[in-house]
Amino acid sequence: MESWETGWEVGFPASNTDELLLALVVRDLVHGSSFDVEAVEDGTELALDFQAGDELQDQTYQLLLSAEIAGTENREMVQAFAEQMLEDLVSEAEDLVAQREELGSRPSAELVFQSVPEDEERWDLVVPDWLAPDGAEVPFGFRPFDVQSGDGWPANKVLDAHGRVVLVPKGDEILVFGIPAPEGWGEEDHS
Hints:
The protein is of the alpha+beta class. The protein is built from three helices and ten strands. Helix content is 23%, strand content 38%. Mean pLDDT is 93; it is low at 187-191.
């Protein structure tokens, strides 16, 4: 079966905490997702695997989206599917963000972002890629640690108590929010 790739940069407003939180939740929802798509018109079938990254440019959050696709190259079909998928994921993210719980904040100067071994990665911790130290595997191969104690922050017990914990930079501090796990989390077809 033919295999090909494509990608997009999607800008989200990020002028305040709520906008940035929403964009980070969208990235979390799309990263690692897989879909089997069939065109109604001609029965064309495609398997799409998405990866997502991010960067911040002024007050715009850039979602860096890539898709590895198995099947005949049909860019129009993939574009239409990606647009509909993102629209649906923004709606799901809005629902999750509406249920958020503020878990606190820390001054950025009290934290250091360090790489973690694969067996210590936390898939339930959502951290912007631009906070990753050089050489870290994004999005899960790093996390913040308390500069003084060296302890992971937020603590694993905080992560265990929420579906997702999202770190949102705001000026010289890092805000932390707990949100429910996405629908279907833990099922075989959703990672």
